Amino acid sequence: MLSRRLALAALTLLAPGLALGHGPTRQKVTEKIAIDAPADVVWTVIKDFDALAKWHPAVEASPADKGNAEGSVRQLKLQGGGALTETLERYNAEGKSYSYRAKDGGALPVTNYTSTLTVSGEGNKSVVEWRGAFYRGFPNNDPPPDQNDEAAVRAVTGVYQAGLANLRRLVEKR
Description:
The chain is α+β, with helices and mostly antiparallel strands. It is built from four helices and seven strands. The protein has helices at 2-20, 39-46, 52-55, 149-172, and strands at 27-35, 59-61, 73-78, 83-92, 97-102, 110-122, 125-136. The chain has a seven-stranded antiparallel beta sheet with strand order 1-7-6-5-4-3-2.
């Protein structure tokens, strides 16, 4: 009976520390944009894993070592400096979608970042959805402001919004 009370007392004392030990929460961002063009036309612009530099204004170069083959590694060189390394995880040409994973330590304040880009459409209209999941750049408690959850969400949201807006501009002026 005494050992039960001691165990309960120890657990009660440890519980607040366990709550403080909780690490970061996985964050998610989803951005969509409607484009006045058939899905096949939009997919033609974005379908190649190495084509990001052709439609995203922040990307200077985006070569991929194995094209659209799963496992292909894309080396992003950003306008004004910075770089990211991404690996193609899934590619579905028929479904007009691909998913990739970024190597930690790149230009974004995130870790364990995965993303999917999908084009769907009906008639002469399409919707592009870009969604990602990630953890903030600083994995421990009390992150600095530039590596906290808000900074991570803000950075990824900005990347998606800028890319999708430019994609729409490029496709609709064709």
